[in-house]
Amino acid sequence: MGFPPYLERALLEMLLLSVPAGLLGSWIVLRRLAFFTHAVGSAAFPGLVLASAWGIAPPVAALGTALGFGVAQERLARSGRLAGDAVTALLLIGALALGVVLASDVFGSGAEVDTLLFGSLIGLSAADVWLTAGVAAAVLGLDAALRRDWLAAGFEPGGARALGLRPATTDRLLLAAIAVCAVVALDAVGALLVAVVLIVPAATVRLVCDRLRPLRLGAVSLAAVEGLAAVWLADALNVGAGPALAVLGGSVFALVALCAAAHRRWTT
Amino acid sequence: MTGWLLDPLDSPFVVRALAELLILAVACGPLGVWILLHRHAYAAESISHGMLPGLVLAALVGAPILLGAIGGVLVAAAGIALVARDVRLGSDVGVAVYVSALFGLGGLLALVPDAPARLQELLFGDLLGVDGTDLAVAAVLAAGVALALAAGRRPLAVAAFDPTAAGALGVRAAGWELVLLALLAVTTVATVQGLGNLLAVALVLAPGAAALNLARRLGPALVLATALAALSGVAGLLLSYHLEVAAGAAVALCAVALAGLSVLAPR
Amino acid sequence: MSQVVVRGLQGGYAPGRAALTDVSFSAAGGEVVAVLGPNGGGKTTLFRALLDELPWRRGEVGLSGRPAYVPQGDRTRLDFPLSALDAVLMGAYARTPWFRRIAARDRAAARAALERVGLAAEAGATFGALSGGQRQRVLIARALLQDAGVLLLDEPLSGVDSVSAARIIALFSALQAEGRTLLVATHDVGQAAGWDRVLCLNGRQVAFGPPATVLGTETLRQTYGAELVVLPDGTAAVGVGHHAH
Prior knowledge:
Helix content of chain A is 84%, strand content 0%. With 268 residues, chain A is mainly α. Chain A starts with a helix and ends with a helix. Chains in contact: A-B, B-C.
C-alpha cells in the first residue's frame, strides 16, 4: 500500500477497534451503560496528564484512573447517598477538573491537552496498535464466554441468580472490559470522544435491528466502515479521528433515525 | 493568616471572579438540589457538553460567547428532548450519541482552522477574565433563575416527590419538568463563561449533592446548597491564587471534593 | 345525589388503542365502590380517566369537584427530604396561591388528618423512614386534607401491615359517614363483598352492582380469567401476581 506509516497505523487501529465497538458497544446499548462509558473514558484524562509528567506509559496511567473511577463509582453508588448518574457526573467532572489543574503545571501550550482530549492521527505508535489488537482478541474471548450471563443479567437481574449465574461478578467484568477498551481507544479518538467509537455504531444499528446476532455483526461492520472513513476525513482535515468520527457517525445515526421514523410513519 | 485569605483580593481579576461565583451560587445552589431531586443529573451533564459547537462558532466569528452559549444550549436541549423519546434505544443511549456527535463537531470546528478558537477557554472557562458585562448578565440570569425556583418551589416538590398523584394535587408535573430544564439551560449559559462547558455543571450538581446528604429537609437543603456553592467558589479561588492553577478547574474540584466529603457524614 | 357519573367511557394511552372501553356506572355520596380487575385490566386507567390524565378519552365523566387520589404505595420517592407532615401539606397546595404561605388553618387540618390516620406522633418523622403501611396512611391523610367529595384509592391495602390496614378500613366508614364517595381498586374479593358496590373491569366493564349480584363465580371468571381460583367450598379467590408496572 502506498500509505504513509502513520496512516497505516491509524487505519489498522480503527479496524481493530471495530471489534470492541461492535461487541461491547451492543452490550453498552442494551445494558444502558452509555453514561458510564463516556465517563470512564473522560476519567482517564488526569491519568494521561500524569503519564506525560512522570514518563509512564499512557495506557498504564489511563487504566489506573479508569479502574479507580470504576471502583469509586460502584462504592459511591452502592452507599445509596447519591443517585447513580449523579455519582457518575460528579466523578467525571472531578476527573476533568483534576486533569486541568495538573495540566496547568505540566503542559506549556494547549496543544498537548487538545490531543489528550480529542485524539490525534499521528500520535499512534506500533505498540499502541499491538495493544489494541490484543484487547480486541481478549474482547472476542470474553464476549464468547460471558455472552449469556450478560444477556440474562441485563434482561432480569433477579432471575439471573436463580439460573445459577453470578451477575455481580460478570457485570463487573463487563464494566472492566469497557474501561479497558476505552483506554485503548483513547489515543485514537481522545478521552472525551470514546463514546463515538464504542456507542455510536452499535446505537445506529440498534435503531433498525431487534435481534442480537445481526445487531452485533452489523455494529462491527458499521464501526469498521465508519472508522476507516473517519481516518480518511481526519487526514484530509488535519484533525484527530475522534471529531471526524463524531461528525460522521452522528450523521449516519441521524439519517438512519429519520429513515426508520419515516418508515414507521408510512407503514402504520 | 488573614494575609493568606485577603491577598488575592488585591487583584481586580480575582475580585470580579469572586463576584461572579457568588452571583452564580444563588442560582446554582438551589437548582442543583432540584435537578438531583428530579433525577436529571445526566441531562445537566449532557446539555452542557452538547453546547460546544455553539461556543466554538461564536468564538470563530468573533461574536460574544453568550450568544454562542444560548444557541448551543437551544440546539442541545431541543435535540436531547427529541432523542430521549425513543423508547427502543433507551433515552440515555440516544442522548449519548447526540451529545458526543455535537461535542465532536465542536472539536472539529475548533481544531480544523489554523487560527485557534481558544478551545481551552471554552472547555474549561476563563474565570479570571470576566468583565463587568459578564457580571451584569450573570446577575440578571441568576436572579431570574433563583426567583423562578423560589416561586415554583411547591409544584417542583410535588412533581419530584409524587408525579403520579401530581395531577390530583393541582400540579402539571410534565410542565414543571420542562420549566426546570429551561432553568437548567439558562443557568448553564450563565456559568459557562466562568467555568467552561465541561465544568459548568460542577457548581450545579456538587453543592446540591452535598446539601442533600447533609440536610434532612428541603428548605435547609436549598439554603445549604447555596452556601456550599459560594464556599466552593471561595476555596477554589484561594487554591488557584496560591498554587497558581487554573481557576475554574480549582473551583470545580473544590465543589466535587465537598460533595465527596458529604458522603462521609453520618446519616 | 350522585357524586360520580360515568357513561360510555373509553380511553387509552395511545390514540386509537383503547385500554378501557364501555364503562358506565354511578356512585352516590357515602358509597364505597370496589374496583376489581386483573393487573393491566384497567383499574389504574379508570382512575387516570377520572383525573382527566389519560392521553385520550371519550364518553362522559361527571364528578363533583376534583377527586383526591391515593396512588399505589410504592410510587413515591423514599429519599425525598420531607417529613410526614410536609407530605400531608401537599394536599393544600392546590388551593394555596404560589405567593402565599400555607394557611394556619390548613396546617391545623393537616395535623388533624394525621391524627385521624393514627400518625400524629410521626408528624416530624422523615417520610422515607416510615414503614410501608405508615406511608400509605400519610398519603391517605394527604387526600383527607384535600377535602374532596370523591376519593380514588389505588390498592390502599396491598403490602400493608394489619395495624395500618385496620385503621384504614375504619377510616373508610368515617368517610362514608361524611358523605364522601370512595372508589377503591383492590384485589381482595372478600373485602369487596362488604362494600356498597362492585365494579369489575377487564379492559371493559364486566359488571357493576351490589356485591351480592356481582360477585358470582361466572362474573369473576370473566373478570380475572386465568387468575381465578375456585376454592373447594365454592368461594372464589384471586391469585395475584406481584405488581410489576
